[in-house]
Specification:
18 strands; single chain; 4-stranded antiparallel beta sheet; alpha+beta; disordered N terminus; Aminopeptidase; Alpha-Beta Plaits
Length: about 425
């Protein structure tokens, strides 16, 4: 079925819960239809081929120069304005998560995949479906006013923000390694994120460090397999792993100065054993480290190594530690933030623009913002009146957005773009 008919059908079958509000150059129906199409058809990192096809087709229809298959499945497009000026890059992420959706939405994902040896659902549980829709809408709005633009806009649709498959490269870092910014030479980059922490209508931003670095650690505990009825004949890696997990919790609670810098150490997966009465040979622990400062991060690395190895030794086992560093701290350029924050106020009103606290979530937008000045802001996605403390969070199987947030995100990013390029909004 051609995409345009699929999108129209999605609006007929799945009636909108939000009022239709005209946006500059794009309708609310389009934003919502795009989002629902992506939501129903999620794809994991480095595998976003169908998603990339929909995006590239839309950008070509706008008359833009489109480049595909960047960092595997990424799509970029260049819009040249009618007047000379700077080049602004706008970025949206494309990938979904290995999460089985439980929202009950009529357009909920039914996709499945094998991930780390287990069958699981695939879901846009972090709002990337909305990010793509917003940027497609902004591209359409800016293309309608290309003659007024004093400069140009580079639209970046980035794959694998949540991380590439094990053993592969991907994401923003690979796009840069492949020469994206050398080819297009943008002067600044802007991104946004739909977030359940804030009510719809609100945006949050801060200058300087905004989001943490997210490191990934793997601890492999080696014991000696034996019958569960005779544990003294072997070395129990499950008990050892449990003691290690307990010890890891003391790193942040007792050895990191949280008054100076936030940090998190969490174990997200434990894998070992296949039968109730067999103590296995080995257990694998996989977890994440979140931090904002180099010396704090290095101290955590050392503590994980020390706790894992000495705890294993105390239980007559051995432990090896591997740490990967797939992201860095996301930093909003102070000068660019001072320049662009007023655009958010213009778009939404001063009372709707709040100061964000440093967040321990991570974003590989950080690599773009390391290469050139970056500006990144959060867009509230929880319906007004819903308790933010109990609303399903990003990465939850129950996560959903109030689709009014698409309109808010579109309006905010469009205003930032127009102001950066010196164009008065027609709204």
């Amino acid at each position: 079925m051609p995409v345009r008919y699929a999108l129209l059908l999605s609006l007929i079958v799945f009636p909108m819960s939000t009022p239709v509000v005209a946006q500059e150059g794009v309708s609310a129906e389009q934003l919502i239809a795009w989002r629902r199409h992506f939501h129903s058809n999620p794809e994991l990192g480095n595998r976003e081929t169908r998603t990339a096809g929909v995006i590239a087709s839309h950008l070509r229809k706008l008359g833009l120069e489109v480049e595909t298959e960047i960092a595997h499945t990424g799509v970029v497009a260049l819009l040249e304005g009618g007047k000379p000026g700077p080049r602004l890059a706008l970025r949206a992420d494309m990938d979904a998560l290995p999460v089985t959706e439980e929202t009950g939405l009529p357009f909920a994902s039914t996709q499945t995949t094998d991930f780390r040896g287990q069958k699981t659902g695939v879901m846009h549980a972090c709002g990337h479906d909305g990010h793509m829709s917003i940027l497609m809408g902004v591209a359409q709005s800016l293309a309608a006013r290309r003659d007024d633009l004093a400069g140009s806009v580079l639209f970046i649709f980035q794959p694998a923000e949540e991380g590439p498959p094990q053993g592969e490269k991907g994401g923003a870092k690979l796009m840069l390694e492949e020469g994206l910014f050398e080819r297009y030479e943008p002067d600044a980059v802007v991104g946004l994120h739909l977030l359940s922490n804030f009510s719809v209508g609100t945006v949050a931003v801060r200058a300087g460090p905004l989001m943490a670095e997210a490191d990934r650690f793997t601890i492999t505990v080696e014991g000696r397999q034996t019958h569960g009825s005779r544990p003294w004949n072997g070395v129990d890696p499950i008990l050892t792993a449990a003691r290690i997990v307990d010890g890891l919790q003391s790193i942040v609670s007792r050895r990191v100065d949280l008054t100076r810098s936030p940090a998190v150490v969490s174990v997200g997966a434990i894998k070992g054993g296949i039968r109730y009465n067999i103590i296995p040979d080995s257990v694998e622990l996989v977890g994440t480290i979140r931090s904002f400062e180099d010396d704090v991060r290095e101290g955590i690395y050392a503590d994980i190594e020390r706790i894992a190895k000495h705890t294993a030794e105390a239980h007559h086992a051995t432990a090896t530690v591997e740490i990967e560093r797939p992201t860095i701290v996301t930093v909003n350029d102070p000068a660019l933030t001072r320049k662009m924050r007023p655009s958010l106020v213009t778009a939404l009103g001063a009372e709707q623009v709040i100061e964000a606290a440093p967040s321990t979530v991570a974003e590989d937008f950080a690599y773009f913002a390391q290469a050139i000045p970056g500006f990144y802001f959060f867009v509230g996605s929880t319906p007004v009146g819903v308790d933010l403390a109990t609303a399903p969070t990003n990465h939850s199987p129950l996560f959903d957005i109030d689709e009014q947030s698409l309109l808010v995100g579109h309006k905010a990013m469009l205003q930032v773009s127009l102001d950066y390029l010196g164009v008065a909004s027609s709204e």
